[in-house]
User: What shape does this take?
Amino acid sequence: MPRVTPPDRRERIIDAAREEFATRGFAAARMEDVGRRVGISRAALYLAFDSKEALFRALVSEVITQLMPTLLPSDYGTLPAPALLRAFIRNAMKRMAAPDMAFLPRLIVGEGRNFPELARFYHETATICVLGAVERLIIHGVERGEFACADAKMAAHSVTGGIVHAALWRSVFEPVGAEALDVDWLAECHAGLVLAGLRVG
Assistant: This one.
């Protein structure tokens, strides 16, 4: 009889890959070590993902698929844009600065030049998705008369820049002795600055 694949095997593999990439980075991570974390053979792992690159792409895609619905509703309706943006900044910064997420921008910044296809995939899958969501939210606020903004696309870069900074500080600088970052307070300060800049009048 054919071997039955556990229903959660893909999820377990991606979780193991997250740990491996977070610990070793992309270049040093090995498929056999991912398989060892899951408790499956290298051959079984390659049946699920035919390369380390494919595994990384699956991880990034799953992160975005799971993350975005928790940050912004799909339909803004009559919800006020300032409250939506403040909540987005608070939740996105807290989530992106968490250890299981902060390694992703660190990995892309540190290894992207050596693996341009992965950097391109991250940009097209994650970066553009988040920037687009923030841009649409700012436009929503402009249309409601709650925001004044000449260029929502550029404003979205300013919003997300603070979030990426928090992730890099946590994953790059704190491990080498930098002052621990109060992410909740940084999020409040960042949201306050952004909303002040978008305020009408």
